[in-house]
Amino acid sequence: MALINTPIKPFKATAFKEGKFVDVTDADVKGKWAIFFFYPADFTFVCPTELEDLAGIYPTLQSLNVEVYSVSTDTHFSHKAWHDTSPAIGKISYYMLGDQSGQITNNFDVMRPGVGLADRATFLVDPEGVIQFMEITSEGVGRNATELLRKVKAAQYVAAHPGEVCPAKWEEGEETLAPSLDLVGKI
Amino acid sequence: MALINTPIKPFKATAFKEGKFVDVTDADVKGKWAIFFFYPADFTFVCPTELEDLAGIYPTLQSLNVEVYSVSTDTHFSHKAWHDTSPAIGKISYYMLGDQSGQITNNFDVMRPGVGLADRATFLVDPEGVIQFMEITSEGVGRNATELLRKVKAAQYVAAHPGEVCPAKWEEGEETLAPSLDLVGKI
Amino acid sequence: MALINTPIKPFKATAFKEGKFVDVTDADVKGKWAIFFFYPADFTFVCPTELEDLAGIYPTLQSLNVEVYSVSTDTHFSHKAWHDTSPAIGKISYYMLGDQSGQITNNFDVMRPGVGLADRATFLVDPEGVIQFMEITSEGVGRNATELLRKVKAAQYVAAHPGEVCPAKWEEGEETLAPSLDLVGKI
Amino acid sequence: MALINTPIKPFKATAFKEGKFVDVTDADVKGKWAIFFFYPADFTFVCPTELEDLAGIYPTLQSLNVEVYSVSTDTHFSHKAWHDTSPAIGKISYYMLGDQSGQITNNFDVMRPGVGLADRATFLVDPEGVIQFMEITSEGVGRNATELLRKVKAAQYVAAHPGEVCPAKWEEGEETLAPSLDLVGKI
Amino acid sequence: MALINTPIKPFKATAFKEGKFVDVTDADVKGKWAIFFFYPADFTFVCPTELEDLAGIYPTLQSLNVEVYSVSTDTHFSHKAWHDTSPAIGKISYYMLGDQSGQITNNFDVMRPGVGLADRATFLVDPEGVIQFMEITSEGVGRNATELLRKVKAAQYVAAHPGEVCPAKWEEGEETLAPSLDLVGKI
Amino acid sequence: MALINTPIKPFKATAFKEGKFVDVTDADVKGKWAIFFFYPADFTFVCPTELEDLAGIYPTLQSLNVEVYSVSTDTHFSHKAWHDTSPAIGKISYYMLGDQSGQITNNFDVMRPGVGLADRATFLVDPEGVIQFMEITSEGVGRNATELLRKVKAAQYVAAHPGEVCPAKWEEGEETLAPSLDLVGKI
Amino acid sequence: MALINTPIKPFKATAFKEGKFVDVTDADVKGKWAIFFFYPADFTFVCPTELEDLAGIYPTLQSLNVEVYSVSTDTHFSHKAWHDTSPAIGKISYYMLGDQSGQITNNFDVMRPGVGLADRATFLVDPEGVIQFMEITSEGVGRNATELLRKVKAAQYVAAHPGEVCPAKWEEGEETLAPSLDLVGKI
Amino acid sequence: MALINTPIKPFKATAFKEGKFVDVTDADVKGKWAIFFFYPADFTFVCPTELEDLAGIYPTLQSLNVEVYSVSTDTHFSHKAWHDTSPAIGKISYYMLGDQSGQITNNFDVMRPGVGLADRATFLVDPEGVIQFMEITSEGVGRNATELLRKVKAAQYVAAHPGEVCPAKWEEGEETLAPSLDLVGKI
Amino acid sequence: MALINTPIKPFKATAFKEGKFVDVTDADVKGKWAIFFFYPADFTFVCPTELEDLAGIYPTLQSLNVEVYSVSTDTHFSHKAWHDTSPAIGKISYYMLGDQSGQITNNFDVMRPGVGLADRATFLVDPEGVIQFMEITSEGVGRNATELLRKVKAAQYVAAHPGEVCPAKWEEGEETLAPSLDLVGKI
Amino acid sequence: MALINTPIKPFKATAFKEGKFVDVTDADVKGKWAIFFFYPADFTFVCPTELEDLAGIYPTLQSLNVEVYSVSTDTHFSHKAWHDTSPAIGKISYYMLGDQSGQITNNFDVMRPGVGLADRATFLVDPEGVIQFMEITSEGVGRNATELLRKVKAAQYVAAHPGEVCPAKWEEGEETLAPSLDLVGKI
Question: How does it assemble (chains A, B, C, D, E, F, G, H, I, J) (predicted)?
Answer without folding.
Answer: Homodimer; disulfide-linked, upon oxidation. 5 homodimers assemble to form a ring-like decamer.
